[in-house]
Amino acid sequence: MQQVDGLKPSEYLLETAKENIEGKITIDEVKYRIDSYYKQQQKKEQAVDDRTEEADKVAANITEILSEKTFVFNPAELMNIHRRLFTGVETIRVKTGKFRDYNITKSEWVLDGNTVLYASSDIITATLDYDFKEEKNFKYKGLSKQEIVEHIVKFISGIWQIYPFGERNTRTVAVFTIKYLQTFGFKVENDIFASHSWYFRNALVRANYNDYEHKIYATPEFLMKFFGNLLFNEQNELKNRYLHIGFNKQDLHPTGNSNGQKNIIVEKDSVNNEKFSVNKNKFSVNQEKILEMIYNKPAITVLERAKSLMISERAVLKNLAKLKSLGIIAREGADKILFKYNPQSAYQRKKSKESFKS
Fold it and tell me: What angle do CA 71, 74, 77 make, to 5 degrees?
């Protein structure tokens, strides 16, 4: 499920996890090995991708939390899950287990760069308390399968829309959801979250976005398909292209589309969907965000980028070097790190009303 944040585990973690699955080592031993591995890398001054380190440590934490037969249904549990998931990978901007104290927006591919309206930071606690109270008092007895899915979707999408933490909300909500559904007796695992992580997040976005002027309305249909598969083994097709606000069924047959509708081209709808193609180049999530920063503020410093992305300055420099090698950005000045958007490069920034590739 970490693919939603552009994270991929290392080969070392995969080998260690294999030993855990085979019963050779415990999850505590896995966590110890991972922690020791990265400490040794630092001592040797070997280059370590901060995002890979986060992926490894959080993966071990997810496994540990889901293996435990403990759960309390309240906002404190949500906060505790966030704290436990991301302990050891804190950032300057985001502290584990702490609600955000600032307001946010998020540019979404599925919304042509627009954002969901998230809860104001000063009402997060009150809003969570209200939603949890309403859900606790709700009675599922006698409901049909569809009614169960409808209500669960309403509750989970509402919690996500509050966006209580500065970052890493989707993974937190996913783990909380699995634990909560298990209290109902559902045999829920994280497989579907892992294989359809981007669909899950995009479905949460579509469940909470309205643009009445352009006749776009919040819809639970995509999340219902996801949870229908998760809970009742339905065989709904989960493809990201269908969630894009510009998608039209006619787009599946572009040769017959002569009415001016735009084509939403999606090369694949897999777990690797965290990388979007733009003019045949693929950029990681961090690279996309860096390009967005450069586009909006060419003189932004490396430190500012690092704080905003919650990664190290070294990781920012590594991404900048990659983008420079592709001709996407260009250095300006010999004595300072200043990059500006290169309009003649292979990367031509497409704003709304244009086609996307993913």
Answer: 55
**In order of start, what are the domains of the chain with their CATH numbers?**
275-358 (1.10.10.10)
Exposed/middle/buried for 68, CB within 10 Å: 0-12, 13-18, 19+? exposed
pLDDT digits (tens, 9 = 90+) for 70-113: 999 999 999 999 999 988 776 645 678 899 999 999 889 899 88
DSSP per residue, 267-325: S--STTTTSEEETTEEE-HHHHHHHHHHHH-TT--HHHHHHHHTS-HHHHHHHHHHHHH
Phi, psi (rounded to 5 degrees) for 72:
-130, 130
Other Cβ atoms less than 10 A from the Cβ of 20: the count is 19
Q: How far apart are CA 253 and CA 30, in angstroms?
A: 49
The C-alpha atoms of residue 73 and residue 336 are separated, in whole angstroms, by 51
Over the stretch 307-337, which tens digit does the pLDDT of each residue have?
Answer: 888 788 888 888 888 877 776 777 655 444 5
DSSP 16-77: HHHHHHTTSS-HHHHHHHHHHHHHHHHHTT----HHHHHHHHHHHHHHHHHHS-----SHHH
Check: CB of residue 61 under 8 Å from CB of residue 81: no
